[in-house]
Amino acid sequence: MKDLLFQLCAAVGVPGVNEASLLAAAQLSKYAAVHTDSLGGVVGVIKGESDYNILLDAHIDEIGMLVTTVDDNGFVKVAKIGGIDIRVLPNCRVMIHGTEKVAGVVCSTPPHLKKDHDESFDEIDSIYIDTGLSGDAAKKIISVGSRISFDTKPAELLNGLITAKSLDDRAGCAALIETARRITARGIPPVTVTISLSAQEELGNRGAITSAFAIAADEAVAVDVSFGQSGDLPAEKCGKLAAGPMLGFSPVLSKDVTAKLEKTAEKNRIKIQYEGMGGNTSTNADVISLTKTGIKSGLLSIPLRNMHTAVETVSVSDVTATAELLTAYIFEGGLCHA
What is the pTM of this model? Predict the structure, then answer.
């Protein structure tokens, strides 16, 4: 599992760059009949004994930036793609995906030159990237619209934790690929399973809207990340790392799917945590549940620290437990055999 997570997170999936989609498609195709959709999402189908179709969704895209200007001195100005946390950008290493890859660093003001209460990084318009190139050289390689990703390598921490960019939501993607592996290893499932590694979630769930419409499943479970406990964050709003996936409770989620997931976890002695939300979940489950005449949807979230940064952190055991629970849920038949 760790190796799969490292491979997925090392690939780039900023909308418009499909390295991660291609890698995920290659991995998923070992266990499912795979195709890609027009937005760059990956869909894999495992035929079951019945046509009752359970959709498992995670998003393959990641946050990043887009080039808006290359000035005459070679400095690059940017716009946000998704909810990137501007506070962490100063001095970050990044990769610009122009006609070739160009490494860069986000410029910062030396502390000696800062004024009191300097707010220079409060807005994305204040961000500049230095590639070391002259203006003329930079403009030959980098153009308006070139995508930018964090340039960090996945790393292993102590106690079963890993840190990387894009664990939101490559952790979910890895869990679904592992679920596909476990399903095929056990044999033909009682229901058909469609795995969607959807695109453009960070831009407003766009990929899930189109993929869920095309798949038209009978029920669905979305897999994403949620806030992991760290520092002085309020415990009631966070999940513990290495304590299992977080089962979502929300007015937009199906009580039936949620109850069956909880019962399946209890029956198979799989650790889970609980996450209550008073409205939308801010995941693909929100839009999947509204597809066509409505799809009963559940949500599992993997606890993650440092969300929307270059050092997102998860426990590998939580990703594995998510796959274990989903596999058991599929062989229970979901709501088909409720």
Answer: 0.93
